[in-house]
Amino acid sequence: MLVVMKAHATPEEVQAVCDHIERLGFRAHPLPGAQRTAVGITGNQGEVDRGNLEALPGVAEVIRVSKPYKLASRDVKEEDTVIRFAGTDAVIGGNGLAVIAGPCSIESREQAFTIAGQVAAAGAQFFRGGAYKPRTSPYAFQGLGIEALRIMAEIRERFGLRIVTEALDSESLERVAEWADVIQIGARNMQNFSLLKRAGMLRKPVLLKRGMSATLEEFLMAAEYIMSEGNYEVILCERGVRTFSDHARNTLDLSIIPALQRVSHLPILVDPSHGTGRRDSVLPMARAAIAGGADGIVVEVHHQPEAALSDGPQSIYPGQFASMMDDLGRIAPVVGRSLPRGIQVNVAAGAS
Ligand code: PEP
Ligand code: MN
Questions:
Q1: CATH 3.30.70.1140 residue ranges in the chain?
Q2: 134-139 long-range contacts, CB within 8 A, separation 24+
Q3: Deepest of 42, 58, 152, 189, by most Cβ within 10 A of its Cβ?
Q4: What is the residue with the minimal CA distance to atom 3 of ligand 1?
């Protein structure tokens, strides 16, 4: 259910509606919009008594939301969600494009600083790097843990990049929430409902990657788990799904971009690295993602990919990253977007 407030409803009237909903034993989610505030109601199995709600001062109407996902739905919030980062130009959603770049894993201070310096110079606003890695093999490199988080905190200080890193479980979630600017929940954890709920209790943006075989509805229901706990800053990320195709690691499903945008207000990023698993496919798919309306890119970059401890074959060279930024700068205006200030679109191209 959704309580739509009148355009000129006062904050006190909105609060009174929230209090009323909570007194009934439900959860109230005030959602301010450009035109008016709406209050989402969750936790109700059946119908809430509309009459009493509609009689409250400032209420315009009470409507049923028919989709299974409520807070993630455009029915509840018409305007696109824009996530801002205090003290920076970095935004995710809206007219700008967000670029999150860095290695698959933080391997050493030197490796992380080298890559961070190069992606910052080419205009990335966010640095990614795994501290806790979800590896298929228990014998593969598992990440440097807290040491990696400390290195990334230094990178934030040094380059002004916002930090994005994955939480694998409730223990790493606590640490990641303390050190990072954006908490990543990986494809393998997209339906780890207890982890999603815990992330929902935090007040930090969550980058939610699509599960390897998740439908659009399952993807949005995972976002809903986070939002139902009161954390509305969810960023969706398409990273490829499993299909019969054997020319790539995964099949990057760019058609989910407009499909998601039709039904949800949440920003959507595309990860062409995990989406293809091949360095030579990353740039074409990054260009296609932006042309297709994505709000930005998550991309793996490594200065020595042949020596990388994880995902070397899909990591692009810093020179290729600069070239990608140049391309995105040209494509952005075609789709009514712009690269944020500070991004140089004429940086020298070519692999280094
Ligand atoms: C990653 O971003 O490093 C990662 C492991 O991604 P995914 O969860 O999409 O496989
Ligand atoms: Mn990776």
A1: 2-63
A2: 134/166, 134/168, 134/186, 134/188, 134/189, 135/310
A3: 152
A4: 104
